[in-house]
Amino acid sequence: MSFNFYQRLELIGKHIPYGHVVTYGQLALLCGKPKNSRQVGYALRSDKVGKDFPAYRVINGQGYLSGAGAFATPGLQKSMLQKEGVEVSPDNRVEMKQFQWKHTMEDAVWFRELFRQLGV
DNA sequence: TAGGTGACGCGGT
DNA sequence: CACCGCGCCACCT
Hints:
Structural class: mainly alpha
Order of helices and strands: HEHHEHHH
Distance between the termini: 9 Å
C-alpha cells in the first residue's frame, strides 16, 4: 500500500534528534524509497504525518530552509531551529557539516527491521 | 487518459 | 558560486 510511505515517515520523524536537521532525500532513503524525496515534501505540505512531526527540521540538500510559504508565517522555521540551537545564516542556510542528523547505516538497518516487525 | 506541478536532487556549464 | 536542465514520482486537474 502506498500508505506505508507516510506511516514510515511519521515514525522516523519521532527520531529526528533535537537540535539537528535532516534532508528530504535522507528521509526518503530511510523510508526505503531513495527516489521519493519529492513525496516527502508533499507529505509535509499536505499534513500526512501528523501534527507532532518536526517539519521545521527538514531542509533541502544544499542546507537551505524551505520557502517562505511553507510554514504558517515566514521565518517560523528559522526561529524554531534557532530556538533549539541550530545556527541559521542571514540567507536562511544551515551548515550541514555541523547540524545535519548523520544517521548511520546501522540506523537505516534498524529502521528497516522496525518496519518489518510492524508490517509497514 | 494526458498533461501539469512541486517544502527535491544531481550533474553539467 | 550561479544558473540550468533533466530525472524522478505521487498527486491533482
